[in-house]
Amino acid sequence: MLIRIMKQAPVTIKDIARELGISPSTVSRALKDHPDISPETKKLVNDLAAQLNYEPNTIAMSLRSKKTHTIGVIIPEIVHFFFSTVISGIEEVAYKKGYTVMFCQSNETYEKEVIDTKALLAHRVDGFLISYSKETTNFDHFREIKKKEIPLVFFDRVPNEDLECSTITINDFESAERAVDHLAAENYKRIAHLAGPQNLEISKQRLEGYKNGIRKHNLYFEEAYVQYCGKGDFEEGQRCTKELLKLKNRPDAIFANNDVAAYGSMKAIKEAGLKIPDDVAIMGFSNWQFASLTEPQLTSIAQPGIEMGKAAARRLIMELEAGNEDIPPVDEVLKTDIIVRDSTRSVAK
């Protein structure tokens, strides 16, 4: 068969139709496996399309359907272990459903988050999955998404304002309370907390869960036992722990808002010549991949990152494919587990 297609020109449905002597509409339906087209014609069309390396014009298709089958995702950090597992869950569900995913990271800054939102809107994504940054206190850029009637699902970090969006979270309050339950059961009496950024709802809930656990077990408490680690990073965990170790009634256990801060805490404890957990126990939150590689291994609350990503993607796609059906937002809460390791083993006090 003589092929009269220029090498540089993209192959179109009209090119295939001309070569086969059939109409472009027949080619289009054959490529879509339409039941009205005979198996013989479908084979001819698909074989030639493969031979010519035909690729559908997704831009033209999206203009006709007003859909791009693209999901925009904004996360604080791609390199963060928890968020990397969330990404895996999102991709697994989205690609099975025929959606492409565009990822942006805010780098934990409000300004970058706004830029990312505008960029994804400009790319005409069908919907958004968002976990907002530590700096974000103004949610107007999310309201702009809602004004455009674009589905939006928040995961992990959820605004404390009613934006009428579905949310996928864990019960941070209950998880933190269970952390104190565990430490109390291991006979620790003076439990401190490395708290996260005060504007994040998850930090507030973990702090309140910690305090509720302290009250429930009637444990010793003083205000200095709560140290705010604004960045929640290694250095902040180290700095805050040094402050705790200066106290007259030094804590015998520390519950950190996240594992990275817990690693910093472990370093500070060791530098002070103290032993973990004999002198001070340490417990984290997130169960990073390094938790089992520290010395001693770190006890941590395990967040279901992959399941959270899957749940968020499933919910968004459900809303995207609902058409004109009005689906009310839902708040889905996933369970966490305590992974007990050597950093909190039972001691006699």
Automatic annotation (TrEMBL):
<keyword id="KW-0238">DNA-binding</keyword>
<dbReference type="InterPro" id="IPR000843">
    <property type="entry name" value="HTH_LacI"/>
</dbReference>
<keyword id="KW-0804">Transcription</keyword>
<feature type="domain" description="HTH lacI-type">
    <location>
        <begin position="11"/>
        <end position="65"/>
    </location>
</feature>
<dbReference type="InterPro" id="IPR000394">
    <property type="entry name" value="RNA_pol_sigma_54"/>
</dbReference>
<dbReference type="Pfam" id="PF00356">
    <property type="entry name" value="LacI"/>
</dbReference>
<dbReference type="Pfam" id="PF13377">
    <property type="entry name" value="Peripla_BP_3"/>
</dbReference>
<protein>
    <submittedName>
        <fullName>LacI family transcriptional regulator</fullName>
    </submittedName>
</protein>
<dbReference type="InterPro" id="IPR046335">
    <property type="entry name" value="LacI/GalR-like_sensor"/>
</dbReference>
<keyword id="KW-0805">Transcription regulation</keyword>
<dbReference type="InterPro" id="IPR028082">
    <property type="entry name" value="Peripla_BP_I"/>
</dbReference>
<dbReference type="InterPro" id="IPR010982">
    <property type="entry name" value="Lambda_DNA-bd_dom_sf"/>
</dbReference>
